[in-house]
Amino acid sequence: MLTTDSHSAPYMGAVHEEKNAMIDKSYVTLEQHVCPICGIVFDTGSILMDRRLQPTFEKHTISGYECCVECKTRLIEYVALIEVDNLKKPTGQLLWLKRDVAGKIFNVPIEDVAYIDAAAVERLKS
Length: 126
Ligand SMILES: [Zn+2]
Description:
This protein has helices at 12-22, 69-74, 99-105, 118-125, and strands at residues 28-34, 41-49, 60-65, 78-84, 90-98, 113-117. By secondary structure, the chain is of the alpha/beta class. The strands form two sheets. A three-stranded mixed sheet has the order 2-1-3, with no helix packed on it. Strands 5-4-6 form a three-stranded mixed sheet. The protein binds zinc ion.
């Protein structure tokens, strides 16, 4: 007996996706910044444009560093302590410390952000 599979639809979806992949470059791009504290990437609300109107951009372009809204708000009351490894690379560990507490712990004034090693983080936690 011959059976037919009614679920085997033609590959319409696959063809459609290929077409979309062809048009991923543009002469305009949405500008994004990276938060140096939490590492989040966010839209600045600006659009960047290629001077010669060449399609050189992906949809989003990261152009620099800027604190995100959340970190900016926290920095009013807190300082950010970013843990770094031996090579001064952030480990992803982040501590927020009340400004008055930070002033008592550290004998140097901290503006907004301090980079500290893992040993210092352990000392602060205890
Ligand atoms: Zn942030």
